[in-house]
Amino acid sequence: MLYKLRSTHGKFDRIDPVAFKDFSSFGSLEKDLEELIAESILDVLFEDGGLMPIFQERQYQAAIYALNKKGELIIFELKTGTAGEGAVNQSLRYAQDAGQWTLSTLQQKFNQYSNSSSDLPLAHKEAFKLEQPLDAKELNKKQHLIIIGSAADDNLINAVDYWKHQGISIKFLPYRIYEINDEKYFEFFTLPYDRHINPGHVKGVLFDTNRSWDEDAIWYMMENNRVAAFGGAKRFVEYVYPGDIVFFSHRWTGLVAAGRVKNGSIKSPDDATSYRDVEFITSVPRKGQTIKAMPFGKVSEITGKSFFWARTIKVPYLTKDEAEYLAKELNIYLEIR
Predict the structure, then answer these.
(1) Residues 208, 227: Cα–Cα separation, whole Å
(2) Which one of 23, 60, 116, 123 is most buried, counting C-beta atoms within 10 A?
């Protein structure tokens, strides 16, 4: 809940709750908002979730299907307006259907979603840096349902609580929309503590060099002192800010360099590219020479974190202190190699 702080004679003396809305309050814009949130679930709202998206249902309901490290299926479903208890029964049917998906079905949906022919077990192994791919029987062995709905929908909340007490793996996450000074704000809380790095604080970001799509993308960044993203992933440049430390993650290799993002705006020289300027704080690889890198396992050992390696940004983010320490260790590692 959002509260406005009020003061009398310069002293805070009262808090007033701010009225909120849900998606249905915006009429024709409801579907646009639904799509926006559905597309932001894993990139923004669950930035530290460590989940591998494999499918997004668009035709009938706003739902995202993802695998966790164990291969369990996580189903996010967004309910707009006042959905009510019947909506939970509908979601349970979707989860029941998804629970019967075979590896072949999962593979088909993953290829459709990723627009690739990648093998799902191998892609899952790569995303979570497992020693071996999971057996087919381990993928989709369990299902977990997460329903995102209006904080004012008591019927929906009560229905979720009922099925939770019946032993169903189901959670409710509330949202609220506020209109303040003609601007719209989306409030959303993830469980259990809604932990997010403060966007206003310096952070460390592990950023992909785009090797899967373009072997030369790394040299575009190294030779021009840039952190860049391309095509449908170019929006990820917006997630780094001046002062952040960016670690360049080269697929199948490791971290190859680190740089601090310089002041200045995001630049887009063409429709397919966005970048920010950086000042390198470690040595950088040179084209034509063997690329020195800190292995991904070593990165997890130093930071004590398990990263989700399949995205352009390898969540979770690092705090300023964690980023400074990793940069120091990376520089030492690269110098002695």
Answers:
(1) 9
(2) 23
Residue 283: what pLDDT?
95
pTM: 0.78
254 and 147 together in one domain = no
What's the pLDDT score for residue 311?
85
Same domain, 208 and 268: yes
pLDDT at residue number 161: 93
Is 113 domain-assigned? yes
Residue at 190 is within a domain? no
Same structural domain, 100 and 235: no
What SS3 state is found at 298? helix
197, 203 Cβ separation under 8 angstroms: yes
Determine phi and psi for 246, rounding to 5 degrees: -105, 130
Length of the chain: 337
What residue has token string 């009262």?
A: 14
Q: How confident is the model over 2-40, as pLDDT tens digits? A: 899 999 988 998 999 999 988 778 776 666 776 777 677
Look at the chain and report how many structural domains it folds into.
Answer: 2
Q: Which residues of the chain have pLDDT under 70?
A: 28-31, 34, 38, 47-49, 58-62, 81-85, 192-196
Cα(12)–Cα(10) distance, integer angstroms: 7
Q: Please identify which residue in the block is written with the tokens 């035709």.
A: 59
Boundaries of domain holding 221: 203-336
Q: What is the pLDDT of residue 138?
A: 94
Is 330 contained in some domain?
yes
Q: Round to whole Å and give the CA distance between 157 and 43.
A: 25
119 CB-near residues (< 8 Å, 6+ apart): 107
User: What pLDDT shows up at residue 170?
Assistant: 94
Contact 43, 87 (CB under 8 A): no
- For the chain, the first-to-last Cα distance in angstroms comes to 52
E-strand stretches of the chain = 3-8, 11-17, 52-57, 62-67, 73-78, 143-150, 170-180, 183-188, 203-208, 226-230, 245-250, 254-261, 267-270, 273-280, 318-319
Nearest to 277 by CA among 259, 293, 251, 303: 259
What count of Cα atoms within 13 Å lies in the side-chain half-sphere of residue 25?
12
Contact 170, 164 (CB under 8 A): yes
